[in-house]
Specification:
5 helices; alpha+beta; rod-shaped; 3-stranded antiparallel sheet; 2 domains; about 190 residues
């Protein structure tokens, strides 16, 4: 996850400065706007990749993805995927039955992390919307069943390289658009 930011190469900066020689104060504004649009589209693309391949809830994805926007004074935009813990509870994924299974005849609990690959949780049960597993032969001890975090899922899909490419592609398109808007006088 070392390359989780948008980089400007020298050719892009030279191209931009040649367009905006008469407006040196507007160049950082155009760059920052293009970077911010690119980083927002990267966040959207990351969420789409996860929703296409995994059954993780949207709220869990949105909580772990964040962006740091660029400004005309600081031309750095970052897309970050951070986890609050080492693992996510299985209740963040698709599981069945959705209702509590305590106090009733045994019903197997299945969890589906990757779409199309459900598995049964051995000695599992559902209580208060959370999937647990008995670790012994008696009622206690129990443990909360956990699965991978959002950064781990993105790493499994090798998504960071694709997201970097998407960000750079969007940045170049938006940069051309922003420069054109400045030259036409549409934006300031």
């Amino acid at each position: 996850m070392a390359d989780n930011y948008v980089r400007l190469d020298e050719s892009a900066v030279k191209k931009l400065t040649s367009y905006l020689e008469g407006m040196p104060k507007q160049a950082p504004v155009a760059i920052a706007r293009a970077m911010n649009r690119a980083i927002d589209s990267t966040k959207t693309e990351a969420a789409r990749i996860l929703k296409d391949n995994y059954t993780i809830k949207s709220s869990s994805v949105k909580q772990s993805l964040s962006v740091k926007k660029a400004s005309k004074n600081e031309l750095v935009a970052q897309f970050l995927s951070l986890a609050n813990s080492a693992s996510l509870s299985m209740s963040h994924y698709k599981f069945s039955p959705n209702k509590e299974t305590t106090g009733k005849a045994f019903r197997p609990v299945t969890v589906e992390i990757r779409k199309g690959s459900p598995f049964e949780v051995k000695n599992g049960f559902v209580w208060n919307g959370t999937v647990f597993r008995r670790t012994g032969k008696k009622r206690l001890p129990i443990e909360v069943k956990t699965g991978p975090t959002v950064p781990q899922l993105l790493g499994q899909e090798n998504a960071f390289e694709a997201l970097q490419e998407k960000a750079e592609e969007t940045f170049m398109k938006r940069l051309d658009h922003e420069v054109g808007a400045l030259l036409k006088g549409v934006t300031k």
